[in-house]
From TrEMBL:
This is STAS domain-containing protein. Transmembrane segments: none annotated. InterPro entries: MlaB-like_STAS, STAS_dom, STAS_dom_sf. Residues 2-98 form the STAS domain. Coiled coil: none annotated.
């Protein structure tokens, strides 16, 4: 079963996900990220360490959030399996990182 949780700590936001992320929650993740970005949370950390697979709808939702954050001069901090950490500052960069981490989704 896939799920995600949004945790707010002062100005910071953590989006923690676990399990495969598929189209059934893409709209919910998109909406949650849009709210976080619009509220100008900083930093915005997306923890996908325990996510084995994502579909293109999830990548699209993350890319939209990265693009909106970049327009405000901010980025998203991605945490991926094997200790990988990236700060992405736009949709293209997000898609590139996600394509390497989840080749079947991008």
């Amino acid at each position: 079963m896939s799920h995600f949780t949004v945790i707010r700590l002062g100005e910071a936001a953590l989006v923690y996900a676990e399990g495969p992320l598929d189209a059934t929650i893409a709209a919910s993740i998109h909406d949650a990220l849009a709210d976080i970005v619009d509220e100008r949370a900083t930093p915005i950390v997306i923890d996908l360490v325990r996510v084995p697979t994502v579909n293109d709808g999830i990548v699209t939702a993350l890319a939209a959030a990265a693009s909106r954050a970049a327009q405000q001069g901010r980025g998203l901090e991605l945490r991926l399996a094997a200790g990988q950490r990236f700060t992405v500052t736009g949709a293209a960069q997000l898609r590139q990182v996600m394509g390497r981490a989840y080749p079947t989704a991008a």
